[in-house]
């Protein structure tokens, strides 16, 4: 199969607004909902 999917390398963001959505899937405490490790968030920054 040939997927003609564009990537970020095919996009010129100059002069444009960009919205980026990230799903970090961070571990949380089941009882409180508190994030137990921010390692994935920090690594992405």
From TrEMBL:
<dbReference type="GO" id="GO:0006096">
    <property type="term" value="P:glycolytic process"/>
</dbReference>
<keyword id="KW-0067">ATP-binding</keyword>
<dbReference type="InterPro" id="IPR015911">
    <property type="entry name" value="Phosphoglycerate_kinase_CS"/>
</dbReference>
<dbReference type="GO" id="GO:0005524">
    <property type="term" value="F:ATP binding"/>
</dbReference>
<protein>
    <recommendedName>
        <fullName>Phosphoglycerate kinase</fullName>
        <ecNumber>2.7.2.3</ecNumber>
    </recommendedName>
</protein>
<comment type="similarity">
    <text>Belongs to the phosphoglycerate kinase family.</text>
</comment>
<keyword id="KW-0547">Nucleotide-binding</keyword>
<keyword id="KW-0324">Glycolysis</keyword>
<dbReference type="InterPro" id="IPR036043">
    <property type="entry name" value="Phosphoglycerate_kinase_sf"/>
</dbReference>
<keyword id="KW-0418">Kinase</keyword>
<keyword id="KW-0808">Transferase</keyword>
<dbReference type="InterPro" id="IPR001576">
    <property type="entry name" value="Phosphoglycerate_kinase"/>
</dbReference>
<dbReference type="Pfam" id="PF00162">
    <property type="entry name" value="PGK"/>
</dbReference>
<dbReference type="GO" id="GO:0004618">
    <property type="term" value="F:phosphoglycerate kinase activity"/>
</dbReference>
<dbReference type="InterPro" id="IPR015824">
    <property type="entry name" value="Phosphoglycerate_kinase_N"/>
</dbReference>
